[in-house]
Automatic annotation (TrEMBL):
<dbReference type="InterPro" id="IPR050923">
    <property type="entry name" value="Cell_Proc_Reg/RNA_Proc"/>
</dbReference>
<dbReference type="InterPro" id="IPR000253">
    <property type="entry name" value="FHA_dom"/>
</dbReference>
<feature type="domain" description="FHA">
    <location>
        <begin position="23"/>
        <end position="72"/>
    </location>
</feature>
<feature type="region of interest" description="Disordered">
    <location>
        <begin position="114"/>
        <end position="140"/>
    </location>
</feature>
<protein>
    <submittedName>
        <fullName>FHA domain-containing protein</fullName>
    </submittedName>
</protein>
<feature type="compositionally biased region" description="Pro residues">
    <location>
        <begin position="120"/>
        <end position="136"/>
    </location>
</feature>
<dbReference type="InterPro" id="IPR008984">
    <property type="entry name" value="SMAD_FHA_dom_sf"/>
</dbReference>
<dbReference type="Pfam" id="PF00498">
    <property type="entry name" value="FHA"/>
</dbReference>
Length: 223
């Protein structure tokens, strides 16, 4: 079945199998594909199926929907088209899309020429080891250092946690096997870590880092 592969900053987060005649994408929990991010509208976009083909429709969202970098109202999807909603990417994988051919998956026929013994042939390749299990995701938390919420702690137990004030400054902390990363989402100025602006690229967080976002200071901690 066709599917969407969600990623953020090049890191794949989830896969969604497409089914039914209509699926919605948005921030609110009732959507078929929920993206908990303030840059995403409550009901941002919809996917429609017509005789096995899918098209994406922008639902008059605040920040718009792009496909392959261009804003759209409605767009029929082709294999590997990339839907952009905020900083998130949803890559469309069509049903029956060909997977890369692994030449090692075919049986080989041995042909012996006169005078060649099996012992003269190179040994067969060793069997491939089973794939390693997915690495465990790290744990962490942030502690608010100032303002009315000073002393409050927030466990970073989701793959994405949105912080800040909409319309002022918003950022997201993403949890990956390599650690936690802070990414700017919205606002005229970038968040700061230890007094320095992080820029537009994901910034790796280290234990003890002090994040400043929309006037609020928070300390990142890990066990």
């Amino acid at each position: 079945m066709p599917k969407l592969i969600m990623s953020l900053d090049g890191a794949e987060l989830r896969e969604f199998t497409l089914s039914g005649s209509r699926m919605t994408i948005g921030r609110k929990p009732h959507n078929d594909i929920q993206i908990e991010n303030l840059a995403v509208s409550g009901e941002h976009a919809a996917l429609h199926s017509i005789q096995g083909e899918y098209y994406v429709e922008d639902l008059k969202s605040t920040n718009g929907t792009l496909v392959n970098g261009s804003p759209i109202e409605k767009h029929f999807l082709k294999h590997n088209d990339e839907i952009e909603i905020g900083k998130f990417r949803l890559r469309y994988v069509a049903e029956g899309a060909a997977a890369p051919v692994d030449s090692g998956s075919f049986d080989r026929t041995m042909v012996l020429r006169p005078g060649i013994k099996p012992a003269d042939l190179p040994p067969p390749p060793p069997p491939q080891a089973a794939p390693a299990p997915a690495p465990a995701l790290p744990s962490g938390r942030i502690s608010v250092l100032n303002g009315s919420n000073a002393g409050r702690e927030l466990e970073l137990n989701k793959n994405l946690v949105t912080l800040g004030k909409p319309g002022v400054q918003v950022a997201v902390i993403s949890r990956r096997p390599q650690g936690f990363f802070l990414t700017h989402v919205e606002g005229a100025s970038f968040p700061q870590v230890n007094g320095a602006a992080i820029g537009s690229q994901p910034h790796p967080l280290q234990p003890g880092d002090v994040i400043e976002l929309a006037g609020v200071q928070m300390r990142f901690q890990q066990p």
